[in-house]
Design a protein that fits this description.
277 residues; Fusion Protein Consisting Of Minor Coat Protein, Glycine Rich Linker, Tola, And A His Tag, Chain: A, Domain 2; 3-stranded antiparallel β-sheet; 6 helices; 8 strands; 26% helix; flat
Length: 277
């Protein structure tokens, strides 16, 4: 391509100089602008179509007739009044009041006990003849003579109604003290068998060498073992061995006090003794 042709040619012609223009790439690039304009035009008309349709639907929607809801009518209903029956008042039986009887005033003669030798009697003893028809009292008082059917009254201030129910006498209950220490199933012998079966010496001991571990634990109300505490240590390995076996221990029979299961702290010494092999 000469210099004049280069100046008059497009960039696309210069790029595809001496190249095959028939396989499609040249034609696609050459018609790109026309296709772009066509696509923009089609997109514009489609958008315009949707805008017009939306406006038309809005106008139709505004033209709808709104239906009115039927009115709600509230009616007042008068219910018949219920007759409230008054509770019947039970007849109250009044307790009888004490009645004071007015009795005739009776002459009284003061009673004086027989004098002692060590005492001086200031008042003379009343003669027996003067005591006829009179009541014995601690003082002298004038009055009419007592008739034979008159007895000194006892004034009742109040009357109380007492309901008494008689029945056979209940036998006295015999109180039995119910107390019991916690116990391993099978007793002390069962505890020794359990320890011999599951305990093992964690390390070699010399002949007659001893390791003592004292462990404190709580036996709960259901017999379970908890709160393990090493009181006397025989070494870390021996302590761990005792704790391991204690965790495998079955439930004890709980302690009993006044018929009620109670928790109890228990101390158990375990001694490891070396023997000659």
């Amino acid at each position: 391509m000469t210099t004049n042709q280069i100046l008059q040619s497009s960039l696309l012609d210069i790029i595809f100089e001496d190249r095959n223009k028939d396989y499609g790439a040249y034609a696609l690039r050459k018609g790109y602008n026309n296709r772009l304009l066509l696509a923009l035009a089609v997109g514009f008309f489609i958008s315009l179509f949707f805008v017009i349709m939306g406006t038309s639907n809005k106008e139709k929607a505004n033209g709808f007739v709104k239906a009115e809801m039927p009115g709600i009518v509230i009616r007042e209903i008068n219910l018949p009044e219920k007759k409230i029956e008054k509770p019947k008042v039970k007849d109250v039986i009044a307790k009888p009041k004490a009645v004071k009887k007015i009795l005739p005033k009776v002459a009284e003669v003061k009673f004086t006990s027989p004098p002692k030798i060590t005492e001086v009697v200031k008042e003379p003893m009343t003669a027996i003849d003067n005591m006829e028809g009179k009541l014995t009292s601690d003082k002298n008082m004038d009055g009419d003579k007592m008739e034979k059917d008159i007895v000194r009254p006892t004034i009742v201030e109040s009357v109380e109604e007492i309901d008494s129910v008689s029945g056979p006498a209940q036998p006295e209950a015999i109180f039995t003290v119910q107390e019991r220490d916690p116990e391993f199933p099978g007793g002390q012998e069962g505890l020794m068998k359990f320890l011999r079966r599951y305990l093992s010496t964690p390390e070699n001991l010399g002949k007659d060498e001893k390791k003592v571990v004292k462990i404190k634990f709580k036996i709960d109300t259901d017999g379970s073992i908890n709160t393990l505490e090493i009181v006397t240590s025989g070494g870390l390995k021996f302590d761990n061995e005792v704790v391991r076996v204690m965790k495998k221990m079955p439930k004890w029979v709980p302690a009993l006090q006044n018929g009620i299961n109670v928790p109890v702290n228990y101390m158990l010494p375990v001694t490891f003794i070396g023997v000659e092999e």
